Amino acid sequence: MVAEMTERLLADAGIGAGMRVLDVGCGRGDVSFMVAQRVGAQGQVVGIDRDVQPLAAARDRARELGLSNVTFAEGDLGALSPELGLFDVVVGRRVLMYQPDAVAALRRLSGALRPGGLVVFQELDATMVPASVAPLPLHERVHHWIWQTVEREGADIHMGFHLATVLEQAGLAVERVRAEAVVQTPKLVHRTGAIVRVMLPRIVKQGVATEAEIDIDTLEERLLGERAKANATYVGDMVFGAWARKID
C-alpha cells in the first residue's frame, strides 16, 4: 500500500528519464529501485545510508535486478560528501522524522541540488490514527507499541503535519502536499504483523511491551480475526507526501 503511494508521489513530482537523484536514508534500496526505473539508463540514482548492513543488502539486490544506474554509499545527511556532486532531485522516505533538526538537514540537502532542483519526501504521522468506527482494542494496542517505540527512540511522530512547514523553513518552495490513509478491512490486509516482527527487539528494548504480550507468531491472525469479528474498517497509518523546489 505505502509502496503504491510512493510510486504515485515520485511520478507526480515529475521524476523522469535522465535525472540524477539522491536517495537519503536509502536502507535496502526500496525507493532507490523505484526511482531507478523512472530515470532509466540515462539517469543515475545514488543511495546513501549510515548503516552498512542494509547498504550491503541494497547492493546485492541491485546486482540481482541487473540495475547499473544505481550505486550505494555510506553517508550521513549531516555530512554529505562533495564528491557526490549535484543532483536534480533529492528523495527520502521516513527520514526527516528521525532528524534532530529537520530544517537544518533539509538546508544541507538543498546544497546538493542544482538550481531549481526538487526535494521529495514521504513521512508518516500518528496524529489522526488509529481510527475506526467499531472498537478494535488489539489494533489500538499494536498501534501504541509501534508509535511509542518510535517516539522513545527520538523520532517526531507528527512529521507528516510538519512536513510543509519544515520544507518552507529550509528555504524551499513547496509545490504540493498530500496525505493518504492506509486502510484495512476484514479482507484487505496490511503487513502490520510483519512490521511488528521486525520492530520486536526495538519494542522490547524501549520497554513498550514484552515478547509474551506481543505473541508475534499469532499476532497477524489475531488482528485479522478482530477486524473480521467486528466487520470493521481500520485506518492505521497516515502517509504524507510533499515536493518542493530549490529557489534559484
Overall description:
The chain is 42% helix and 25% strand. It is of the alpha/beta class and 248 residues long. It has a seven-stranded mixed beta sheet, sandwiched between helices. It is globular, with a radius of gyration of 19 Å. The chain starts with a helix and ends with a strand. It comes from Sorangium cellulosum. Residues 17-131 form the Methyltransferase domain. Keywords: Methyltransferase, Transferase. One of its GO terms (molecular function) is methyltransferase activity.
Write the layout of secondary structure elements.
Layout: H1 2-13, E1 20-24, H2 30-39, E2 44-49, H3 52-65, E3 70-74, E4 87-93, H4 102-110, E5 113-125, H5 137-152, H6 159-169, E6 172-184, H7 192-205, H8 211-214, H9 216-230, E7 234-246
Parallel strand pairs: 1-2, 1-4, 2-3, 4-5
Antiparallel strand pairs: 5-7, 6-7
Helix pairs in contact: 1-2, 5-7, 7-9
Features:
single chain; 248 residues; alpha/beta; seven-stranded mixed beta sheet; 9 helices; 7 strands; 42% helix; 25% strand; globular; transferase; SAM-dependent_MTases_sf; methyltransferase
Short structural description:
Keywords: Methyltransferase, Transferase. With 248 residues, the chain is an alpha/beta fold.
Strand order of the largest sheet: 3-2-1-4-5-7-6
Q: Please give the number of β-strands.
A: 7
Structural class, by secondary structure, is: alpha/beta
Q: Low-confidence segments, ≥5 residues, pLDDT <50?
A: none
Mean pLDDT: 94
Range of strand content: 25-35%
Task: Count helical runs.
Answer: 9
Q: How many whole angstroms does the radius of gyration measure? A: 19 Å
Percentage of residues assigned to helices: 40-55%
Major sheet summary line: 7 strands, mixed
Coarse shape? globular
Question: How far do the termini sit from each other?
Answer: 35 Å
What's the helix-strand series?
HEHEHEEHEHHEHHHE
EC number: 2.1.1.-
Protein name: Methyltransferase
InterPro entries: Methyltranfer_dom, SAM-dependent_MTases_sf
Pfam family, one: Methyltransf_31
